[in-house]
Write a structure and sequence with these properties.
CATH topology of the largest domain: FAD/NAD(P)-binding domain
Oligomer: single chain
Number of strands: 18
CATH class of the largest domain: Alpha Beta
Number of domains: 3
Amino acid sequence: MENYDVIIVGAGTAGCIAAKTVAEKGLSVALIEQKPQEEIGEKICGDALGEHHLKFLGLEKPTGGELEAKIDGIKIFSPDENTIFTIADKEFVGHILNRRLFGQWLLKKALDKGALLQDNMNFRSPIIEKNAVVGILAKNTKTGKTTEMHSKVVVDATGYFGMIRKQLPAEFGIERTIANEDVEACYREIRQLTQESENTRFCEIYLNQTASPGGYVWIFPKGKARVNVGIGTCMRKTGYPNPKEQLYKTALAKPLFNASSVITGGAWFDPVRRPLDSMVANGVVVIGDAASLVNPIHGGGIGPSMLSGYFAGRQIVEAIENGEPTREALWNYNKKYINTYGKKQGTLDIFKMFLLSCNDDDLNYGMHEKLMTEDDVLKAGMGDDFHLNITETAKRVFRGLRRVGFLNRLRLTVAMMKELGAHYNTYPETPQGFEAWQAQTIKLIEEGRQKLAP
């Protein structure tokens, strides 16, 4: 049997940041990963990271090829592509990553601080004693040996599948399952173009409810005539189109991709919803994608996962130094994340429901007539309050086009986003009162689903 202060399962962005944060305070950390060490960092995703996340975490920009392209902002295309919103703001300046090199860079930071990596290890189950997680069982895929490991805190950084979260008892108060309607099925390829694209500084997002309901098509420049091109679509109960087929019908049919070649491709899933209402229990903390810490609109999860690893790591250190890492002692991680990024995720969950209720004609007209301006989209993306530019002329036009329903849904969406945002401001300081807060959260989310149902 092995003993550590902290066991972190998953060496992705969240897990590595958590391991670094804990280990640099002198605690013993085991970082458990099913991949071999040289493959850590390999992941199919959009590869975009806002520069402000690095600054917030006090991390220098890596210089070893981890940052492949500088991004100045986002261009959002209407379904007919006749209207383009350009969002250029310091919060949207960032980089397209070489995902493997960036993952290796984060791993090295954790190891340099003293974290112990155990790769080729498959997590099997948490060890639960006296209403607390006290360790894990993991199997070495090379030797076949199962090892029992004990710790004061176990961290679930296993990504979308949340392998620890799913095995926790219901009484721990952590959601164990994520509904399909809160998940996007994604497909992405890295493509080599025959020549450099005209656009090398903006991420392009294409709204198209026919091709990608509840999601979008993206084209992100990576430099050296390469692009990250992909699609995400909501896994609704009523069915959803095959992401790979839709990508080939839409983005890859553009002249830009004539004679291009596939460098790599693959599919994955994104939990696009509000964060878990609670991410802690006695002896256990959930971070990153395992805690549904992904932006519900653009699907970005690298930045939020790093934030969660940092906040969780700091709270774990404090809890252990002050005594037992109980739910109460770990609770401030919930509060810190909700106040910093979680409130934004929650309000954007409502905006996602609005997008799902729209058809392409609605979006074309709404963007063309600037019922939402670039500034509004920026504020919405930041989770801030914004106002609608609904003039009397626009109202008359909408009545004539029989789009009053769309107009009313847009107004309702703004009101519900504000209401949910105000509710998130009341997140409890301690576990006392959490159940009532969570019940109200669920009520507001369900009201949104019903009132904005397509």
